[in-house]
């Protein structure tokens, strides 16, 4: 069975950057669940199975479709907390689930900096970050229970973004304990 990773976590901690790096450096297929209304699922012909997983919380059909691809896959998602059942279902099917954490104030600053670089019409309002963080904090005990020891820092102590190869080294080492 090929390696399948699910990466989630605090906004602006490098989930997408890590996925893109894994494509270039490790030969993974990358799905960004939030990209263009599921364009990555469409590209891989997985949208129907993904919608079923999100809707009913069963991952069997999604995993069977992913296995047919025959290559390692990384799926990142900002994960609205109402969909924690997706993490549980993927984990039950053997997917490695990882959470990128960060100090809220540092992540908020990183989020604001990231959004400033986008064209104005594509920017996400900081209020969306604040709502997501409120939800993460509200559901943290359950989230922590699902991800267990698979929680790594997405930002450096000074609030700067960790490089994907640093995050990957920590994930890969944690998997091979």
Quick synopsis:
This protein has 177 residues and is an alpha/beta fold. The protein is built from 9 helices and 5 strands. It has one domain: Rossmann fold.
The side-by-side strand order for the widest beta sheet comes to: 2-3-1-4-5
What spatial form do the alpha-carbon principal axes imply? Answer: globular
Q: Which runs of at least 5 residues are low in confidence (pLDDT < 50)?
A: none
Mean pLDDT: 94
Name the quaternary structure: single chain
Number of domains: 1
**Termini gap:** 19 Å
What is the third-level CATH name, the topology?
Answer: Rossmann fold
* Beta-strand fraction estimate: 5-15%
Number of strands: 5
CATH hierarchy, class: Alpha Beta
The helix/strand order is: EHEHHHEHEHHHEH
Radius of gyration: 16 Å
CATH architecture: 3-Layer(aba) Sandwich
Helix content: 40-55%
What is the secondary structure topology, with strand pairs?
Blueprint: E1 4-9, H1 15-26, E2 29-32, H2 39-43, H3 47-56, H4 60-69, E3 73-76, H5 84-92, E4 96-101, H6 104-116, H7 126-138, H8 140-147, E5 151-153, H9 164-175
Helix pairs in contact: 1-9, 3-4, 5-8, 6-7
């Amino acid at each position: 069975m090929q390696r399948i990773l699910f990466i989630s976590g605090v906004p602006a901690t490098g989930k997408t950057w890590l996925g893109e790096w894994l494509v270039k450096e490790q030969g993974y297929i990358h799905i960004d669940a939030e990209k263009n209304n599921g364009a990555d699922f469409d590209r891989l012909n997985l949208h129907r199975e993904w919608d079923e997983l999100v809707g009913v919380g069963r991952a069997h059909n999604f995993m069977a479709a992913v296995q047919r691809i025959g290559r390692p896959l990384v799926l990142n998602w900002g994960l609205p907390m109402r969909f924690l059942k997706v993490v549980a279902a993927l984990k039950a099917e053997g997917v490695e689930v990882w959470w990128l954490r960060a100090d809220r104030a540092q992540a908020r600053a990183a989020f604001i900096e990231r959004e400033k670089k986008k064209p104005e019409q594509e920017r996400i309002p900081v209020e969306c970050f604040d709502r997501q963080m409120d939800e993460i904090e509200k559901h943290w005990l359950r989230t922590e229970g699902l991800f267990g020891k698979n929680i790594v820092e997405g930002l450096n102590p000074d609030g700067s973004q960790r490089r994907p190869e640093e995050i990957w080294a920590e994930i890969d080492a944690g998997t091979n304990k």
